[in-house]
Each structure stands twice: as C-alpha cells, then as structure tokens.
Amino acid sequence: MPREERPVASFLRALPLPQSIPEGVVFILGSQRIELEDIPGEVRDQASLPGRKIEIAPLTEAAVSEMVTSIGLASEIDSAEVYSVSLGHPLVTQYLLGKLLEADVEERKALLDGGFEFDGDLEKVYRAAWREAEEADRDVAKALVTLSFVEGRIEPELLAACLSSLAVDRAFTIAHHLIDHSNRGWLIFHNSFRLFLRQQTITLYGTPNPDFTDIAIYRRLADLARSAPATSGQRWLEFRYLYLAKDHTEAAAIAYRKYFVAQFIDGRRSYDVSNDIQDAFACLNPGEAPEQLFDLMLAKGEVWRRQQALEMADRLVAAQIAAGDLYSAEAQLDQNHFAGDEWLIIGALLDNGQPERARTIFDRQNPWDWYDDRQSGGEDATKKWAGFAVVLL
Helices H, strands E: what count in the chain? Predict the structure, then answer.
C-alpha cells in the first residue's frame, strides 16, 4: 500500500478486535501510528504491548558521520555539527548534506550556524525552500509545483518548455537538495515534499491561478508528453496525464491496442502499460464502445504474452547492451532478469563514461544477501562486486 504521509487513517483501525482473531493468526504492518482517533481501544492496547512495536529511532552520531564521509566531506566539515543541526533525522540529514555538497566554505559555515533550520518539524525545511522560491520569482514556485505533479523523471529542458529556462534553473538552485537529479531527468526526492508542494497555491490577482490547478497542470504535462523526445520517459505518459486530468474523452481517443503495445515494444515496463490499460477501461462509456473495449482486452493479453516470452530470454540484457540501448537494459533490472545482469550493465555504463549511473546500480547490491539467502554463485558475485568497488572508489 502507498504510504500516507499525513496519516488520518490507519490499518490498525481496520483490524478485527483481538478477541476475534483465532490462535496462530499474526498481522504484520509497516510504519503506523497508534495515536490516531477511532482506533478501537482493544487494538490500541494490544499494539502498545512490549514486543508488539518498534519505536523508530533517529540516526546515531556515528551513522551521520559515515554519511558525511560517504559523500567526501569528512575533511571539510564537522560531522558533529551536521548531527546537531539534523538531530539525526535520516531525511533531513540527507537534505542538509545535499546543500552542503554544493555550497562553498562560507555558505557551509552559514548553514551549520543556523542557516539550515530544523527543530523536529520536517515541513519547516520545506517551508524555507518554498519561501525562498516565492521571494526569488513567482515562476520559480510554479516550476516546483509543476514538478510535483510529474510522473517519473522529467528532463529539465522539457520542464522548461512549459515554463522558462530561467525559472527551472533557479528552482534547481534553491531546491536541488530536495530533488533527485542523480540520474537522467529530475524527480522529487521524497514523497513528503511532493505532497507539501501540491498543497501550495499559486495565486493571480489575489485568487488561485486557474492555470495552476491540478487539472490544468496535468493537461499541460499531457502536451509535454505528446512532444517529448524519443529519449524521454515522459513520451509514454500522454494517456496517463489526460486520465489524471479527468479528460476521459481525450484519453479514450488514444487508448487503443496499437498505442499501448507500441509502448511495451519501445521498452516501457509491462506493469506500467497494464496499469494504463486498466485505467483506459474506466474511460469508456459502458455499452458505447464495444469494439474499443475488445481492442483493449486484446492489448492487455498481448502485453502479458510478450512479457512471458521475454522472461524466457536469458540474454535479453546482453542483447540490449549490444544494441546500445543502455536505458532499456537498466530498466530491465526492475523486471525479470537473470543473476549477473547487473554487472553487465555496470560495466557497460562505466565503458560509456557514465560512472554515476553505474554507481547507483552498484549501491543497490548487498553481498551479504547472497550468503544470507544461500544463493548459488555467491562467491562469483562477491568477486564482481569487489572488482567494481575498487573501480568506483
């Protein structure tokens, strides 16, 4: 289930009462709050018992020190000062280090001496960035709000096509520590900032600007997706944005088997294509488009069969690399792939002069997993990991 950043409801509220649960039945939930209203008292009492919950603790000072070292700032800043500012909050520590990494000596001193405020309220960090954006230029605030509605990654050049290069560039200067820009395109780093931005209002003459409502922004993004270059992941999202804009008639006008199957052939994940096909069913008026309904049913089946066929291709990633399609090869790691494919991609990215993309994939590998899970080939994988570790270091 997607995480709810400002919880108003909890799975705990949906649980049956303790006395009605048979012996041997165990519920395991992710992060939850038990102080919310309407949770049955019996459930709250059970959830509060010793051993029933783990309190999420802040990072230790040693952990923060390791983060400072990992980005190469250990000799330039005092990790104890970083810890005193971030209070060990993982996300805030990440944001602070992002700002320190791009700052000069004087700016770093200012940030650690009170320029970066955090008192336990995460939104205070977001409000500071928003205030700076509004003071810089109203168009900068527009750029950040628009980015919060983008699905997946978007290239800054494409984002500037519906705003301005200056506004997008200044938005990055102000909020780069809140944006994931380590890979192709930009992405809001954490969903809490995305939700914060969506709650802000762009005004015009003292009232909400009609060009920056949710629907208006999604329509503008649909136009961008329609004209996006072949190298952009946004090129697949015209239907998605039209659907989110509730323009179901326009969305249905392009929702055909040929449209969706072509996306899958082009390299889009079958999971995302299938989700769009499912939404396309909701765009059709019941009983009025039987041919299109049948066409979409064929599309769903065809995408599934094509995916099944690809799952049997043990050299798919190697073929994608040989064809020079490194983005499709990298995307394949999120789908069905064979052990060892990740090393092929890391090597190909290094050969292609893209060490940061290679590092992103490398950092997701954990040698201990190969032994904890008793996977075969653990020794060979460890040698590969060690070899690339030396190169990347």
Answer: 23, 4
Q: How many residues does the chain have?
A: 393
Please say whether the beta carbons of 109 and 117 come within 8 A: no
Q: pLDDT band at 309, cuts 50/70/90?
A: confident
C-alpha 12/C-alpha 246 separation (Å) is 32
* pTM attached to this predicted model: 0.80
In 10 A of CB 106, how many CB atoms?
8
pLDDT band at 142 (very low <50, low <70, confident <90, very high): very high
Model pLDDT, residue 59: 94
If DSSP codes are grouped into helix, strand and coil, which group holds residue 186?
strand
Burial (CB count <10 Å: 0-12, 13-18, 19+), residue 364: exposed
Cα–Cα distance, 368 to 377 (Å, whole number): 13
Is 1 a residue whose pLDDT tops 80? no
Strands 207-208 and 187-188: unpaired
Residue indicated by tokens 């390299």? 267
DSSP letters spanning 210-224: GGGSHHHHHHHHHHH
Whole-number Å distance between alpha carbons of 388 and 393: 8
DSSP letters of 6-42?
Answer: S-SS-HHHHSPPGGGSPTT-----SS--S-STT--HH
pLDDT at 373 over 60: no
- Strand, helix or coil for residue 237: coil
Q: How many beta carbons lie within 10 A of that of residue 241, not counting itself? A: 24
The torsion angle over the Cα atoms of residues 26, 32, 33 and 36, rounded to 10 degrees, is -80
Q: How far apart are CA 261 and CA 302, in angstroms?
A: 7
Q: Residue 258 in contact with residue 303, Cβ under 8 Å?
A: no
- Which amino acid does the sequence have at 295? D
Of all residues in the chain, what percent carry a pLDDT higher than 70?
Answer: 95
Contact 165, 126 (CB under 8 A): no
